[in-house]
Design a protein that fits this description.
This protein has a six-stranded antiparallel beta sheet with strand order 5-6-3-10-13-8, with no helix packed on it. A six-stranded antiparallel beta sheet has the order 11-12-9-16-19-14, with no helix packed on it. Strands 1-2-7-4 form a four-stranded antiparallel beta sheet, with no helix packed on it. The chain is elongated, with a radius of gyration of 18 Å. 31% of the residues are buried. It is built from three helices and 19 strands. By secondary structure, it is mainly β.
Length: 229
């Protein structure tokens, strides 16, 4: 299986921020999962079926009150090839795409950023193994939750606006609404803004994501909450 990232204007150029397209090429018997509704077009010899994954999120207030978990569902399309072919995929929001090849660390990604993955990748919706800060309302506003990925293969990520990668060697800080995904080996916490300069930068959030360790962080140039105002 091969994955190319294309700008809408050409199938020969590298991806550019805007409205990128992922072209997933299949060999016979290859399979891939994608967010339902992300398909633009596909070869006639591919078959597609719809499935769903269920999970539950327990927020901090629910833990304190002893309340129940919030159910969450992810609708997926599964593509299967009986002969060589391809499918074109696009994210629902205008922006760039990136392909992450899984390592032993695994990956944690926003449900809004997940576009597709190869079927050898294990996708999990349960929040028990997630860092506690990811259940905070700042990191998981209404309609968003976090996914974990493990195993071998590739995960295609989308973003609002440009998508860039930071390789963390020791510590790094990102405004919460700009975090798309990060390798699971990194420690992440929410810290209060420590100065008036940080508070001005963060706007209404007043907190910052602090990453510690070694691994990759994927960030987007635009904030969904600000973009919708």
């Amino acid at each position: 299986m091969n994955i190319q990232l294309l700008p809408p204007s050409s199938s020969q150029l590298a991806s550019q921020p805007g409205r990128a397209i992922a072209k997933v090429s299949f060999n016979p018997e290859d399979k891939a999962l994608a967010q339902a509704g992300s398909m633009l077009a596909m070869s006639g010899n591919l078959s597609v079926s719809t499935t769903l994954r269920n999970g539950r999120t327990v927020s901090r207030p629910q833990r304190w009150r002893g309340g129940g978990a919030t159910p969450k569902t992810l609708f997926l399309n599964q593509f299967y090839a009986t002969a060589p072919g391809h499918v074109l995929l696009a994210a629902p929001l205008p922006g760039d795409l990136a392909v992450h090849t899984l390592t032993r660390q695994g990956l944690i990604a926003s449900s809004l950023a997940y576009l597709a993955s190869t079927t050898a990748v294990e996708l999990n919706l349960d929040s028990q193994t997630l860092p506690h800060c990811l259940t905070d309302q700042v990191m998981a506003p209404k309609g968003q939750f976090w996914l974990t990925f493990a195993g071998q293969g590739a995960v295609i990520l989308g973003a609002l606006g440009g998508l860039y990668t930071v390789t963390v060697a020791q510590a790094y800080r990102v405004a919460p609404h700009h975090v798309v995904a990060f390798e699971a080996g990194l420690e992440v916490t929410l810290l209060p803004a420590s100065s008036s300069q940080f508070r001005t930068w963060l706007g209404d959030d007043q907190r910052v994501c602090h990453f510690q360790g070694q691994g990759k962080v994927y960030c987007q140039t635009h904030s969904g909450s600000a973009w919708c105002r």
